[in-house]
Amino acid sequence: MWKKSKVTDQTAAGQAGIKKKSKVPGVMITQFQEELPEGMSTPDFTRKPIALTIQEGKTAIFKSIVVGNPKPTVTWSRANGEIVFHPDVCIQKYDESSNEHTLEFPKVAPDDADTYKCFANNEHGRAICTVVLNVIAVGFSKTKELQKVQVEDTADFRKKLKKRNPDGTREEKAMEPEEKVWEILLSADKKDYESICVENGITDFRGMLKKLNEMKKEREAEIAEFVSHINTLKHIEVNDDDCATIELDLDLKDPASKIFFYKDGVMVPLTKEECDGQKHSLKQIGKKFVFTIRGLGKDDAGLYSVDVGGCNVFSTNLKAPDVEFAVKLQEIKAEERQDAMFQCVLTAPYDDLKWFGKKAPLTNGKKFEISSSEDKLIHKLIIRDCVPLDAGIYAAVAGVKSCNNWLIVEADKDPKGKKGERKSTMAGGANSEELEKIAKEQQERYEKEMAEKIEKAKQAQAERELADAAAKLESEAAKKDAAEANAAAKAAAKAEAKAKKAQKIAADRAAKEEAARRRAGEGGADGGAGGAGGAGGAGGLDDGLDEDELSNSESDSAEGGPAGGADGAEGEGGEGGEGADGADGGKRRRKKRDGPLVPDTVIGDEDEDIDEETAKQRKAARKGKRAKKMLEDGEASAAVDEDEDIDEETAKQRGKAARKGKRAKKMLEDGEASAAVGDEDEDIDEETAKQRGKAARKGKRAKKMLEDGEASAAVGDEDEDIDEETAKQQGKAARKGKRAKKMLEDGEASAAVDPGVHFHAGLSDCKAIMGEAAELECKVSSEDCKGIWYKDGEEIKTDAEGVTITQDGSFHRLKIHKVTDEFGGKYKFEADGRKTEAMVVVEDPPRFEAEDLETFKTSVTVKKGQKATFKLPFVGRDPIKVQWYLEGEELSEESNIKIEHTEGCSRLLLTKLQRKDSGEVKIKLKNEFGTVEAFSQLIVLDKPTPPMGPLEIIEASPSVLDFKWRPPKDSGGCKVDNYILERNQIGRNTWKKVGLIGPEAKYRDSDVDHGRRYCYRIRVETEIGTSELMETEDIQAGTKAYPGQPSAPKVATAFKDCINLTWAPPSNTGGTNILGYNLEKRKKGSNLWSAVNPPEEMIRSGKLCPVKDVIEGMEYEFRVAAINNSGAGEFSVSSEFVFARDPKKPPGKVIDFKVTDSTYTTLSLSWIKPKDIKGEEDEAKGYFVEVRPAENTDWDRCNTNAITMTSYTAKGLKSLGMYWVRVIATNEGGEGAPQELDNYILAMPPPVRPRFTDVKIKSFMIVRAGNSARFNINFEASPWPEVTWLKDGVPVTKKVTISNAEGMSQLLIPSAERTDTGIYAIIVKNIVGQESFSIEIRVTDEPKPTGPVDLDENVPGTVTISWAPSPDEKKDDRLHYMVTKRDSHKRQWHTVADRIFNNKFTACNILPGREYQFRVYAKNDMGSSKPSESPKWLIPTKKEKFTVNLAESKPCDLQCAPKFLIPLKMHAAPQGYECYMSCAIKGDPTPHVTWYRNNISLNTNTNYFISNTCGVCSLLILRVGSKDSGEYKIVAENPLGRAECTTKLTVRE
Description:
about 20% helix
């Protein structure tokens, strides 16, 4: 019996791993499943590789034969290192005919000596066997020398080792987070640097790379002390069996070096063998080290490091997300060609779930569809179009957790073996609603847990912020005290200086005003215009700005207005115009002034640290003083001229001045009121102060606008005789007053009634690009509603820099003119107690400045061998990945390519440039916000290539040679300046320089001699240099040269009234251009060619020439001749014959397309010719066969040329492959529609139920012990069956050798013993059925003789023989005994009893007076033993007289009449053969016999041989002829009577 050891998985019920021994010694089989599906089997070796000891340089071959269903895949490995598969080193082959897998070493080397393993795998199990290769080194071996050097180097390295702990471990300490990050980066791939930096908050990407390179150099130097080479490093991978592995290939300098395993800096104990009890294990296979972590859990997350001798070699990070399986995978039972779906539910959203199928990772594709729900809780795997091969275990892995289960595919039981239709149902998708319900509960639970975590985090953050704010307030208070003291000292010093300067300015202004009054009459219109400009400057205060821009506009207007007015008074309108610009909203250029506008205004130091409330109060004071000054200026301007006879312009100026004075007076009152409010309410918060200030200013402005409007209206009433301009001004003033009144009423109403404002559209999150504009917008239900904007909880001032706040009806907008990082955050708009929020996320993608980009786009032109530089500054948030491309291929650092990256700039330097390097240069920048590209062109100048031929001869007359050629393929990047020509007359050795002929690629040479031949050399000249030469063919001047033969005409299309031909011009044109062609035709069977075209009308081109002079149904051939200046050349080869008839229609589909036979590599097909339907489908002339594997979409044509037979055998198919097959009929009209088989075909013989083919099969076999027992049996089955041998109902032992070949199986018992006796049964089974046969094999030997034989007489006349049993009686159940005897009368031994199964026998008829002796033999199937003799037995007897009485004899009469005992039979003999007739006759006395044919006696005929022997009468005809046919009769006569018998003879020809 096999030894079994199970390793079960708790996740999927029924899964097991069973290890068992093979029938072939040295082979271990692992069965993955508890029960194998019907017809399936695990891999096994019927022939395993044999160990080799071979000489160096010879060829070593390992051969193995494996079986299993499905067919196993065979791989090889070696104990030390990896096998290098190369034609010169090692080759793996497979022979389909013999099913042999071979591993061949063409020239074996000492390094190939190793222990090799051969693996045979399929989905049900795995078989492994090992084999050793020993190599005998020949001559001097460098390997031994290298080994010596390595030993010496190892000794030196050990001396150089740093001092470490005695046990070789490094100092253990808990790793800091920063140390973990650097350990991860040291072992990570370059492509992962960016994600690791983002995950750990590293922003200085370049700095990180610099430091990382330094650390790598140090680490490599440390590793080099212990490790010679590191081949592969595989980061930690989580498998589907709750295990994680780390793989390394290390070439250790000292094999005795200790290897340690650390987690987060703490050493982890390791075991050298894989066992279930240990958490961590290390397995070494040659140079390959595999670290395994079993039973993964959340505690296993961390940084794992591998140290060699105290030096860290490799580190990898294992992440354990907080996720579990709420619902695990369930077992799925699907039908063939049905879809199957596995589903699982996680406890938390997870996007990186991995799927495994039969231990292999799965990816999204046509076969497997992987998806997840929006909340990432429900994950699904759909297996499309299930087939039996898809059955197995499927697993899902989430972090360190996994679950798995079975997919069972029930095959269709279709006796025809056809592929069933695709099913539209889904197996395993019935509980989707229940899973969604569970997922919803998990989502709610997850959100609740996250909310609690966030709340705790917020509380902790608030506590930290509160502590930080307290510390900040203390520091700010100290700074404020120091700043106020400093500001007071500075203010005192500046106040005095500013007061003096203000007095001087006031005196100067008074002087100017006095001068202006005196020149009022003289200045006229100019002065008035200037005054109006001044008034306009003041007017800009209220008309053009809203309340949030008031302070800035007041300052601008105050500076611009008076200045403009004053200058206007002097007759200079320029500054007055500047004041007028203030009325447009104060958007003019500000003038910088050193001193204050009003003498008593005190301006604080710019650096003075004052709070916001103090600044507002000071601003109000300045506003009042400026207004007072403007009032004085306005009154003075109004009182300048009392003359009533003023012109129109003066009137306008006065009106403006009057209004200016009123507005200034109002501003003075407002400023005082505002200052008073601020003084009264000192204990109010900042927000309330802002709201009150805005409301007060709004109400006062409205009231002032109302008063101004009424005043303007009053002025208009008093002055009725005013011009049109004045009327417009008064109308505007009136409307302004009405609007102000309405605003005042609305403000009061708004204060009294709550309109219940709500949002129609709230704010939306915005992604803003650095340096560009961004806008936030919301819509409220009321157009009159005012709101406040906040950023991160702080109010946004209307005069905030870089921000514009506007209101358009019910729409409120906040526009950021140029986005920077400081504008990112949470924005809030609040109106009437309601608010809406949105986030502004500032993104900083890489980008270029417009000027730099335009400069970069400019093409760079250099000469060959020089260098080119491309440089482009950029901006964007780090880290930025910079890539350079040339003609779409990414550039990297090489000897002639240098790439330099500095902060905000990248530079590409290309050296030693060649012409082929020309092309498009691209720079690509990428960061987390986006990607940008820029393009430029690189042009490398070089010498041009030679001109291109062949020459086109325009004219070749006796006096002129005119020809042209093609320009060079590459002009080197420059335009062609000149062509340089040299000429040589054939027969001379000198070349004549023609010189420069210009940039055109043609030349006319008039200096030629008639009949001479010339050759030319042509070079190209550009600014860079001169090309290599092109030498032309010879050109003859003035001699006739006929053209060569064109190609044979080809038929393009043929119709009943027209045939279209094409042909190619001749390669030899005769030195001149081809002028045209002559075409001739000839009917089939005729010798006469007739011209198609008249001689004077040549055919100009051979591209498509129609021939219409044809007769329908006739067959024609054509030929053509070319014509040049010399005349017509030779005719071409004739074309193929073509019928003058309309094109044929393609044939239809073939009929009765079917598969007649198939093997594992071939398919035999047959079909019937398609029907010929006149006008629709013409007769088929050939066929094409196409096949398509089921996994591909492209059809492969089996025959390149059409076949005419209606059968075909497709070869070279893959065994058991699925193929679709079709046939396409074709004729001259093209290919018809394909005819495809209804279903796919498997490349295998037709299914045959197993049956035994031997005519006579032995069912019993006897074998002598010690001899071999061999039994062969032949069978046939398709597909290839599984052959099983049983002994007494159980599998045969490993002692019995089973050899299976195609159609035959052999059972061999090498050295048979008695215990091998039994009934052996063979079971041959495939998908069609099974057949069995049993044979009894009995192993035995010649029995040993019995013990002593005893005789005893119990009954007179009998003897009882008894004997001791043979020693073999207990061993052989078929052993029996035989008894022989002899007596003194006959003296011969004869058997008296046989097959006696006990130890006693009674012999009868024992006569007295005779001496008897008996022998006993032990007998079995092999024979009998030596006899055991009994003692002699004698019964004495008394002699009596013997009397014989004889009876009287009577005479016997035997006479009788003749009688036929056996009559004649009917005969039918072939002509020329012999015929024998016979019969038996009885009679006494002996009768006389006569033969007759057709009543004619034959007794005297020598052609017949007649005999009569003992009553058997016979007639023999040696050669039967037609004359011998007829009726034959035999007559027997004697004195007592007569008898006769007849028969007939028929002669066959």
